[in-house]
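Hi everyone, sorry if this is the wrong subforum. Our group has a chain we'd like a structural model of before ordering constructs, and none of us has done structure prediction before. Sequence below.
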Amino acid sequence: MTDRDASEFQDPGLPRQAVLVTTPPQDPEAPEQAQNPATTELLDLALADLRQRRAELESEIKELEGRRAVLQQELGASFAGQSDAIARRLKGFQDYLVGALQDLVIQAESMELVSQPLRVQPSPLDQQTQTAAEASNPVASVAAAGLFSQDEELIRDRLERFQGQPDFFADPWKLRRSLEPSGATLLDDWFLSQGGRGAQPSTGSRNRNALVAAAAIAILGELYGERLQTLVLAGQPERLGEWRRGLQDCLGLAREDFGPNSGIVLFERPDALIERADRLEERGELPLIVVDAAEQVVDIPILQFPLWLAFAPDPAELALEDDLL
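Answer:
Right subforum, don't worry. Here is the predicted structure as tokens:
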């Protein structure tokens, strides 16, 4: 059988030449590439949720800020005056408390652990005898009333000088502020007509009263030197704080100048002041008692001392003090 014959018996449906078919290799990153669309969709959903929550938080923050602004406006409109008064009272109490604690420490350090001598009050018979002696000797009474008659020139010279330009760099215990003419007139009457013992009308505020008292202290300091010690009576801590700041500013004083062994002592109660004044006189020193305008009553024992100045308020000033309480 020839090749031709053999080819005739070959299946015509089969190809004459074998064809090699190869399968391309699979890409290992193909599954990840197939998952990328799903991951992107999840990220988009998460970002959209975060954006929505952020927008809600920003809206809440704006609402809260608006409410805070409204509350601040209401508080400022309703409590501005009261908060200012409370702040001034707290500041005055703080100043007084610090000074009182320092005074307490000084008193504890200088406490005398010895028995005080017994003081016997004079009997009514002795008082009548003393009154009869004064009546029989009118010259002594006139001398007591004119205690500063010999110092009239010096007193009026200082009062005139105090009304000029203030000396902000003056030495301590010298007046550093300018005295008003009404205050100078008040002190002229107190020194030369009342002999340093009497009540004078209040100037309308505690700061102005402190200025008048500072001018009196400056003049008396020139006359009596270190013998003079000022005792201030005011019934509440905030009032004593105002007196401390006023005298400290007008006389150029430091905190050390306010204490039991210093130039100025502050008191809330009259009995403690009277006891202190008695001890000063026993030691040969001279107490000057200053009574705040808010004290409506001056205790009788205070009137026995040679130097005292009480400020008498008008009804408007008393009403203002009551409003601040």
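For your construct planning: The radius of gyration is 47 Å. The first strand starts at residue 197 and ends at 201.
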